[in-house]
């Protein structure tokens, strides 16, 4: 993966935080192949960073390459072009990316980059579209984009777009990154996937409980994920986020999480970050609004 610093030409620098799915139940499959879910999203104070500069000539240009993702397929470019087209603005943008989040990790890197692009350009192009329209546009880019646009920890239903904000404890998380790319589409098309978990009420979830219905399928298909779960479970109850590959456990403080991180082998990279009910993107935007 190529990582570039953000150019000093950027007018606006914003974070694109990771998320965790603290649980994920699959209730059924819709006619279009997408799955009805119940999931609990919380943000992490760790993520990518994007820099933006407005252009008068209407060109959208992402200056950072991501290995394996062509410029025009990057969710950042797709988000920027859709907002440009739908808003009718004549402005374009130069965009820089500091990529820290693993791709295909189940911590939402691509979706978060897209949401930060929508909110960043809405601000820079002075569109005043607001979160409702940006979230609706974002849903067309990926099921996880709306929660990043809203920036509030949430219980999500539907395909992830029906969001009920929730207040959760904000522990420290150790997130381990098995070195394998998990295909979300493959996991959702596995015949062995549990697709009939009964719906539960958000209240019973907040009292604890829940699981990740994708975990058995991912553990079976990807030995690197299976091994990471076995290893981490020796220290802390560990679960898969989204469709993986990342797995996580929670701790009351940073020191305890760091101690376990230091005991992991070099073949299993990890990071430690605090959970957040308001995403760092939204905290930064609130700060800008106060200036
Ligand atoms: C599993 C989660 O990470 C939970 O947060 C997300 O729902 C996945 O979100 P995402 O990566 O943005 O997924 P998308 O790019 O929208 O979909 C990737 C593929 O996953 C499958 N998919 C995704 C979401 C969903 N609710 N049902 C599905 O069946 C579809 O086959 C789809 O083609
Ligand atoms: N800006 C981007 N950052 C990361 N991936 C991108 C980006 N743009 C397009 N992609 C593509 O999207 C795929 C999924 O990336 P992403 O990092 O969002 O996965 P993920 O963490 O599994 O997401 P989720 O938790 O939403 O399932 C990548 O493998 C890549 O091909």
From TrEMBL:
It comes from the Bacteria. The active site is at residues 19, 144. The keyword Acetylation does not apply. Its EC number is 2.7.1.148. Pfam families: GHMP_kinases_C, GHMP_kinases_N. Residues 205-268 form the GHMP kinase C-terminal domain. The keyword Membrane does not apply. Gene3D superfamilies: 3.30.230.10, GHMP kinase, C-terminal domain. Belongs to the GHMP kinase family. IspE subfamily. This is 4-diphosphocytidyl-2-C-methyl-D-erythritol kinase.
